């Protein structure tokens, strides 16, 4: 019997947007942006560019959140290194009423979603390891510099802040080693 707080990753398809009407990660500007991404055309544009997106739901099909993963090429190390393959988390969102839930940290929804994304990123890195020059070594995400709660969570998951690097609209960059 599955744990009562087990989440299930369901690949996102356009028809799933109807299930997300009213989805909100909160009222902060960065939280509203995340909700707009999954409810609008940005998620569909990202999928067309190769991004994988999952909806995370409970056993009773209640949507808890979503996560996404894609490959990219960045100057590495940022900002001035040579072009290198990375795995990127373009967007991650937890419905506001599920944030911090359940109380048991081992089954916390945010940890389950991040655990899924890290495992999928490691698979991407492993599959690309046959061509070492193109194998991603890092899982990267961007987070608004004022979103202290998210930064703290990502650090607990093993991500490190890259000092002095900001991208798009006051977003800091964090990295997690996934290479061999």
Question: Can you characterise this structure?
Answer:
The chain has helices at 29-39, 42-48, 109-127, 148-156, and strands at residues 8-11, 52-57, 63-76, 82-89, 92-94, 138-144, 160-167, 171-177. Strand 2 and strand 3 form a beta hairpin. The protein is built from 4 helices and 8 strands. With 180 residues, it is α+β, with helices and mostly antiparallel strands. The mean pLDDT is 94.
Task: List the topology elements.
Elements: E1 8-11, H1 29-39, H2 42-48, E2 52-57, E3 63-76, E4 82-89, E5 92-94, H3 109-127, E6 138-144, H4 148-156, E7 160-167, E8 171-177
Parallel strand pairs: 4-6
Antiparallel strand pairs: 1-2, 2-3, 3-4, 3-5, 6-8, 7-8
Topology as a string of helices (H) and strands (E): EHHEEEEHEHEE
User: What is the CATH third-level topology name?
Assistant: Aminopeptidase
Helix tally? Answer: 4
Average pLDDT, rounded to a whole number, is: 94
Number of domains: 1
Helix-residue proportion: 25-40%
Cα-atom Rg, whole angstroms?
Answer: 16 Å
Q: What general outline do the C-alpha atoms trace? A: globular
Tell me the strand percentage band.
Answer: 25-35%
Low-confidence parts lasting 5 or more residues at pLDDT below 50?
none
User: At the first level of CATH, what is the class?
Assistant: Alpha Beta
Question: Distance between the terminal alpha carbons, to the nearest Å?
Answer: 35 Å
Write out the CATH superfamily name: Gcn5-related N-acetyltransferase (GNAT)
Q: In the CATH classification, which architecture applies? A: 3-Layer(aba) Sandwich
């Amino acid at each position: 019997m599955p744990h009562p707080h087990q989440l299930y990753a369901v690949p996102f398809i356009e028809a799933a947007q109807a299930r997300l009407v009213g989805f909100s990660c909160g009222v902060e500007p960065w939280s509203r942006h995340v909700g707009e991404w999954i409810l609008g055309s940005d998620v569909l544009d990202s999928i067309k560019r190769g991004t994988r997106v999952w909806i995370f739901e409970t056993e009773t099909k209640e949507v808890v959140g979503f996560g996404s993963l894609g490959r990219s090429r960045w100057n590495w190390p940022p900002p001035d290194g040579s072009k290198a393959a990375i795995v990127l988390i373009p967007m991650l969102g937890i419905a506001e009423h599920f944030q911090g839930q359940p109380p048991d940290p081992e089954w916390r929804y945010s940890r389950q979603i991040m655990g899924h994304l890290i495992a999928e990123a490691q698979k991407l890195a492993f599959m690309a390891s046959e061509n070492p020059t193109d194998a991603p070594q890092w899982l990267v995400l961007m987070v608004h510099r004022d979103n202290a709660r998210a930064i703290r969570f990502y650090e607990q998951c093993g991500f490190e802040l890259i000092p002095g690097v900001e991208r798009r609209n006051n977003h800091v960059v964090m990295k997690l080693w996934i290479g061999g």
